[in-house]
Amino acid sequence: MNTEKITYFIYARKSTEGEDRQSLSISSQIEDISRLQTQQGLRVTETITDSASAKIPFNRPAYASMIKRIKKGEAGGIIVWKIDRLARNHLEWGELMHLLQTGVIKSIWTMHREYLSSDSALLISLEASMATQFSVDLSEIVKRGLRKKVSLGQPPIIAPTGYLNTKHNDHGSNSIIVDPKRWPLMRKAFDLMLTGQYTVGQVAAILNDGYNFRSRSTKKRMGKPLATSVLYRSIIDPFYTGYFNYKGELHKGMYKPMITLEEFDTIQVILGRKEKPKPHKHDFAFTGFIRCGCCGCAITASRKLKKLQTTGEYKDYTFYHCTKRKGAATCADKRYTTEKEMLALIEEELQNIALVPRWKSWAAETVKADNEDELQKQQKLLKSIGDYEQKLLSELDNLLDLRISNELSDEQYNQKKAERRHQLIRVQEKYSKRKRTLTTGSSR
Hints:
Blueprint: E1 7-13, H1 26-40, E2 43-50, H2 61-71, E3 77-80, H3 90-101, E4 107-109, E5 114-116, H4 121-151, E6 163-165, E7 176-178, H5 183-194, H6 200-210, H7 228-235, E8 243-246, E9 249-252, H8 261-271, E10 299-307, E11 314-322, E12 337-338, H9 339-350, H10 357-404, H11 410-443
Parallel strand pairs: 1-2, 1-3, 3-4
Antiparallel strand pairs: 4-5, 6-7, 8-9, 10-11, 11-12
């Protein structure tokens, strides 16, 4: 072949997908190709690069443009580092082989050999089939590895805020661990949301301004304050409960959960309200039975979140004070008593009280009887939850039967299956929690 009369395109491709991670980078490919060009005296009109996968047909605009320009006669050959850089699917291989055999493409140079129109079509087709089959096999290996990882409770994802990905050299052995710096801050965010007193934006501002929250720095960018959108995506993500989504199904993770399913559901209810957040109704330990010694009004309590000037952190404080609601009477007591001070006053008062042995015995028997009644209630509730769990398992089996008999489409089956799986996970979590509570109570 008289290469002096042929004008070539240099084509280099580096896929961003896992199948090509071992391939040379584009710059390295071009460097090798340039040496080949000099050695063979090849005339090049342009260098074209791609960074998309070749296993998907017609997925590379730069490659498609190059083929179109070759058909127009702008060039008659291609120089490529390796033949599988050009295609890894049968459709594009077929077009490439047709152009080569009909002489539209007169020459394809690689680092190892030159492909000409006169070459055996069988040899070129064999190499094309090997490259295509490599993609198919590798894709299946990757999918199988991901399924195995999911079955072991390891999400094949980038760790969300509050967690980190390990960086082991052995492929597939990495896992998700706690980020010691941001974990407590994200937990604080969930706690603030659970009060019902803050919007997502307000919680993000508290973490950024009060706790100096910054995202993890990388080589390309510095750490940034927590964005409201990032925090919102986090608090609606079941990942933080110890369950992760993979292909539409929830799977139990082997990493440390940050919140419980009950807390997660509570936050979703809070987020679902259309009106602005209202003050949360708290249950305070010492309200309802204590009255003001000055005016006789009931004692109430308030919970405040204050920023400590010394450390810049936020801390919850509970204050007890008079309601001042007894008619038109005014209370002269303007003081606020902290929860710690209230505990000290109650303990001091209890020191002056002596229990009559007969009353003490009666109280112990009453408490025991109440505990037995409560135990029976808990046992009935546990049985009810267990029965519901079995009902959901039966429904899952029935769904499979309906799918096998073609009474449900794939879409309907997957949707209903996902719904039942989500319900089952919550029921199983509730069953385990109730069982632990019942066991602990019985052991006492």
